Amino acid sequence: MKPGIEIQGGERRGTKIRVPSGIRPTQSLLKRSLFDRLGSWIVDKKVLELFAGSGAVGFEALSRGARSVVFVDKSWKSIQTIKANAEKLGYTEKIIVIKKSVQSAIKDFSLRGERFDFIFADPPYNLKNIKKMLDDIALILENEGIFVLEVRKTTETPEIHDLNIEKEVTLSDSKIIFYSHISR
After folding, report:
1. Angstrom distance (rounded) from CA 127 to CA 2
2. Distance between CA 59 and CA 17 in Å, rounded?
3. How far apart are CA 177 and CA 121, in angstroms?
4. Which end of the chain is more exposed for a tag (fewer CB within 10 A), N or C?
């Protein structure tokens, strides 16, 4: 287990959460940039964190007022860490944790008609063909929702079916890309 990372804002600001070994959590500076941009928009939103790892982004969203978070990760170690972090933060009633591949989870949500206001994905940097895996993300994103993808800064920004690239923020080795639905 890595040393904890800190919740940066909201009601649980300053609380450290656990991080399983072998994952690369979203950098504090990137997380701060992300939530500075979202501001109070995140309040009462339904959130989905894909490749959740420690759940740092989802827990940050809850601390800042999100209604609920669904965490998806295929690692048993990550699932256990997310559950322990939720217990520590007092958020067990506001979360759902799913042990499944991201592509399979997106398909299941789509089939059930489940949609999210805010979706965050931080896939492993060595993952091949993220575009194909994320092509259906628009099917589970609310019409006024935001999808944010974190990738290595040298990764070509993927165009995703039915989504507009709104903004890119690059810090250190990473960049986060903000997407929204294409206006029709």
Report:
1. 22
2. 9
3. 10
4. C
Structure tokens at 87: 């217990």
Q: Which of 49-63, 66-80, 165-179 has the lowest mean pLDDT?
A: 165-179
Number of domains the chain is built from: 1
For tokens 């991201």, name the residue: 102
Measured in whole angstroms, how far is the alpha carbon of residue 26 from the centre of its chain?
9
* Containing structural domain, residue 144: 2-181
Q: What's 101's domain CATH number?
A: 3.40.50.150
What is the spatial distance between Cα 59 and Cα 5, in angstroms, rounded to a whole number?
11
Confidence class of residue 132 from pLDDT cuts 50, 70 and 90?
confident
CB 34 within 8 A of CB 103: no
Percent of the chain whose pLDDT exceeds 70: 96
* C-beta atoms surrounding 169 within 10 Å: 17
Helix (H, G, I), strand (E, B) or coil at 71: strand
